[in-house]
Here is the input.
Amino acid sequence: MLLRHPHVEIKALSGTERTKGRPYGQVYPQYAFESIISANGKQGPSPVRSLPPLCLTEEVDFSQVDTVFCCLPHATTQSIVTSILQSAVGRTPRVIDLSADFRLADVHTYAHWYGTPHRAPDLQAEAVYGLTEFARADIRSARLVANPGCYPTGAQLALVPLIRAQLIALDDVIIDAKSGVTGAGRSAKEANLFCEVTEGMHAYAVANHRHAPEIEQGLSRAAGLGNSGVVVNFTPHLVPMARGILETIYVRCQAGVTPGDLRACLEQAYGEEKFVHVLADPQQVPQTRYVRGSNHVVMNVFPDRLQGRAILVVAFDNIVKGASGQAVQNMNVMMGIPEHTALEQGPLFP
Amino acid sequence: MLLRHPHVEIKALSGTERTKGRPYGQVYPQYAFESIISANGKQGPSPVRSLPPLCLTEEVDFSQVDTVFCCLPHATTQSIVTSILQSAVGRTPRVIDLSADFRLADVHTYAHWYGTPHRAPDLQAEAVYGLTEFARADIRSARLVANPGCYPTGAQLALVPLIRAQLIALDDVIIDAKSGVTGAGRSAKEANLFCEVTEGMHAYAVANHRHAPEIEQGLSRAAGLGNSGVVVNFTPHLVPMARGILETIYVRCQAGVTPGDLRACLEQAYGEEKFVHVLADPQQVPQTRYVRGSNHVVMNVFPDRLQGRAILVVAFDNIVKGASGQAVQNMNVMMGIPEHTALEQGPLFP
Amino acid sequence: MLLRHPHVEIKALSGTERTKGRPYGQVYPQYAFESIISANGKQGPSPVRSLPPLCLTEEVDFSQVDTVFCCLPHATTQSIVTSILQSAVGRTPRVIDLSADFRLADVHTYAHWYGTPHRAPDLQAEAVYGLTEFARADIRSARLVANPGCYPTGAQLALVPLIRAQLIALDDVIIDAKSGVTGAGRSAKEANLFCEVTEGMHAYAVANHRHAPEIEQGLSRAAGLGNSGVVVNFTPHLVPMARGILETIYVRCQAGVTPGDLRACLEQAYGEEKFVHVLADPQQVPQTRYVRGSNHVVMNVFPDRLQGRAILVVAFDNIVKGASGQAVQNMNVMMGIPEHTALEQGPLFP
Amino acid sequence: MLLRHPHVEIKALSGTERTKGRPYGQVYPQYAFESIISANGKQGPSPVRSLPPLCLTEEVDFSQVDTVFCCLPHATTQSIVTSILQSAVGRTPRVIDLSADFRLADVHTYAHWYGTPHRAPDLQAEAVYGLTEFARADIRSARLVANPGCYPTGAQLALVPLIRAQLIALDDVIIDAKSGVTGAGRSAKEANLFCEVTEGMHAYAVANHRHAPEIEQGLSRAAGLGNSGVVVNFTPHLVPMARGILETIYVRCQAGVTPGDLRACLEQAYGEEKFVHVLADPQQVPQTRYVRGSNHVVMNVFPDRLQGRAILVVAFDNIVKGASGQAVQNMNVMMGIPEHTALEQGPLFP
Here is the structure.
């Protein structure tokens, strides 16, 4: 996305000890042939060819950088972001952090779920939770944006407007989430091997996934309760596909509220949004293939057979709107660039 | 399974206008080479080679047959089963019906969900619902066994013991079910094409799937309410794999009941069962790859983050225990053969 | 691609009896939510929303159209293209035909392979074979461009420069080709169902595939033999993936010619091409994931263990460069638009 | 397979430092629920439950063992097999080695391809190459059987009878092989992750795979040339599926020999074989789904468009006939047990 962003120049790309010094196209197969065509049509040199080789983080001259996308493991991230933002000399870049380190406002909650005390509580307090559609004003002026987790992005987009409007019960939210395998990252673990994953599925981290407190924080804020108070069921599953999240969310309506009211609320919330859509047909079920490869989110609301309950279904691409796409969207907001810039890519089907 | 069953001889195989007269191995690729080795080691002629060619149903001499496995579309089934069981002359075979036609005891419920009045209400009343583990005595003496649907098999195996023991609330059962594509059958529909299904997932028939009343009937009976009374949320999803069902079931425990109590109840219910298993480790999550290709069912119980609630997860192969395997299991019961005969096949992984 | 093409306005979209009158987004799931963001950032109305509904071909007013992309079954195509190009009144559009109908210059070869005499032999003679990289001048002035088949695109890109340079034997070319399932189209056939295709592979149309004469025509022309003379082995295989073709081509070098010579020839042929690339590392093997979703083609040359022979490997996306992407590329050439316009999309991985 | 083998008792299972002490079912998901039903129908204790926990190789008392299946990495294997077979005291077990260590009779060839000198040249000389169908007499009396590699099993089954009968040219054999990902083993490497492999394919080790010399050895012997002399093209590809190998083999017939002659030769060679089959219909193309999960091999012969050439296609399950199934088949031969014992499993489709 950044390669084709008209206002972005990539100054540094940091890797690991294993990848430092290597060209990007050697590590990421989609750039293997090193000759992508640039947005403006010139090829020589191609933007990929012109990319700097991978380096170590400590080799980057951050004084030459406006924005840092930080995609490091949790815990590691805190000290690096601290050092970037607190370097004494000259201007400092703004940071969009894709790790979990600055998502949870409460450092005790962080310590509980991540098993280690937070080492940058001041930055934690300052960080803006970057679910773009709900936080544009804060993102615009933020030094540090915590890019939301994949599952929490979809769950909050479906639930926050309903909770703000007091349409659903707070104590009866069940989120059954299904994700493609990219959600597990690219590290070489037996559990993510092709032959382990293909032709099978399973739940994991049942009632014990780190995205639960992140979702709960967002819903608690929507309910005006501060950073906590709402508790949800969140049960993720691994599905044999690379990309895509589908979340099926079971809610109880407040007395007198119908599933149609929930639908109307969401339609109003997202009527002007470029990336979030309530499907026009009330019977149409969101599918991950509607959005694969794009920054779009589709959702719909269905009446339950259980009286007074409703079913929300939301689909999106976990590594675009659920990760890098939303990060670019946030950068656009921070920089005052039109928000959809470099995010025009439509869904790829089949 | 029947080819290797020591007490079975296949007398007739009926197909369609398109397939009649063709050898079985031309229509089903796993028999393409027509030379499977028989269980007793003889090859010449192989059991597949000795199979009769596919014929039309009306060409079968049912007086020469002990058991009929009927795998026809719903509605069609009723008149054929009627004619088989009510032929005036000589002995009649017993029927195991894999369609939905005789699963719902209430003909009005049938008519509502299947859109057509039931044409064999007497047989409907007589049919035994063949979820083997719960109905052995009735199956043994039945003329007509209604083989359960795939989703209802898993849902009832997980829920019936808990409801019989009054451990969970009847009005708060949410069944989020995920199935491989074999669940959709083998007919040539655009929706089931490889390129439509691969790398994507979606819910379907939300709050409107015909397996809902079948599950509700089973749970109502377990609650002592007759054929109806319990209503559940049942939300099926299609997953890009061929075989396997995973059902994640959200329940509210009765006051004073813990998830551990649910687990103990299920362990006791299935302690002697050959095909249904509560995983020994309370933290281990059932996976469809644990049971692929076998007649086994694995389940486990987890505490929810929501107070007083629990999560059940059950996995099985939808076309074995969820269809043909359970049909053979029922035939074994009907015939007084050891129940696991021809069902010894262990899971195939990878 | 056309939606985001800055010089294209879509005037009509024709469908079938089944789809006529329906919005595009109802038939193609990637447009299900009907709110793609346009290339210039305006959303209201989105380009998809502004698309005309599907109509029947006979309802299109071709006098209002500059270019027709014709994607009809073979045989059908001939009469429709004839009627479009020979309409008496006013200007006629130019046609890019994605069927096989105008690819084979020799109408007897066409009749032999397609089982029906050609009904538009004059147009056949006029049609330009649109493998862009080899035919720009002719495409520029063509009324009718026959867009190449998927397999022939890759095979000719790898072989034509080598044959022109007389580096390989003409009587010993073996093309072992592997394709994703999109190559079979979207029609509902049992053979293309998910459960038939997943977790398996096979050859098909062995020594009998219609792309063989198309490849042979291209190679014969490259050898200066006219439309025929070269005969090749062409063996296609179906692979359980949606997109992508990999062709592994076994050739015998002319006396004194080394695999390195072949490689140098191809590097020179494509040094200036935006979409065709010889991998920079002689040991790097082309993979379909290098190019998925893009119009790019990657290839490489390897020495064989058999003396005097070489192995060519070429990978591309069968439905972009192998079909619609090349069609847009041809339209750009025909219209004098920069050739890569609307084809900037890089590979999508994972 | 061994669990259900009526003449086998599993005395020891060795694992790694990581897995030692753990029950088998914790490491291999198909035994996760530890309650497989035994072949004789008894469940308590199940055969899996009665399995010994994984141990280290050095903890095994080999004097209590009749047969060892050795599945260790190459090089490591040599010293362990040496110590097993040359232990001074008491009887020694017979060894079926599934590594590559004893497949190549020429230790120099071994050293060249595996990069390390052979440490057990005497055993190398003694080892019997265990392609069962071609070596029963030797296998019967062998102390050490080298179980063939997966690709070489199919290639030799297709080619050896033709070479013995002098029907094809020895200098023009091209083997284009495609394998599922299980061929790469279960080690955690980035290249085998689900998201790297799914929806893509590629060649690998082009003209440089270690199975080439193994195939060449087998063909050279068939030609009466000793262990070398024949050189082949062997080009393997990775396909996004778990199981299955398809090999498409291009050969040149000797003068006057037709593809039909090749077919007749193979039909005669395998007419009595339980596991190797020439498809009855000369036009039917072998597919991996015909044999998935079974020990069967299917093949067929097709005329090429190139004069005087033919195409062989062979399909089998790489981890059954291509590995463990053939190992059990060899054990049966060694022990004088009917050869198909415990290999009755038919293909699993879908």
Remarks:
- The domain at 150-321 of chain B is CATH 3.30.360.10 (Dihydrodipicolinate Reductase; domain 2).
- Chain B has two domains: 13-146, 150-321.
- Chain B touches chain A through 50 residues (CB under 8 Å).
- Confidence is low (pLDDT under 50) at residues 35-45 of chain B.
